[in-house]
């Protein structure tokens, strides 16, 4: 005698089969190497776009970049906000990081270190623009994912031997 609350096996199997097929389709589409590449590019884009605007020529910062760090940007720390120390130096280092780290990410070269560099920059950006936390936490999550699971197969690091899978 069967339980009246248990659906018949014929009703469960088609649903179970459909869910299994859908899951396998998603897994086929979301290949780890593809996800890792997309996350690297997604994190690189906003930093590259910001960084490229800070340059006025080869190793020459725009006046706007220096003005931002001198007059506009402040560190929102307890008892603050405080101005950036050595704003021209900080502007230069920021601009260098914003163009170098994204290039390294997209190429997949020194990827984990580039991701940690962008994570550190994200922390400083958050201290500068605290109301931007919904975007900043997304950047932090992407940087941590790249640092944790590496660049994936489509990277120079992979060709150089960074193939250790992380569980």
Automatic annotation (TrEMBL):
Name this protein carries in UniProt: DoxX family membrane protein
Residues that span the membrane, as ranges: 84-106, 113-130, 136-156
Membrane topology of this protein: Multi-pass membrane protein
Keywords carried by this UniProt record: Cell membrane, Membrane, Transmembrane, Transmembrane helix
Pfam families attached to this UniProt entry: DoxX (PF07681)
Top-level taxon: Bacteria
UniProt xrefs under InterPro entries: DoxX, DoxX-like_oxidoreductase
Main location: membrane
Family to which this protein belongs: Belongs to the DoxX family.
GO terms for cellular component: plasma membrane
Compartments in which it is found: Cell membrane
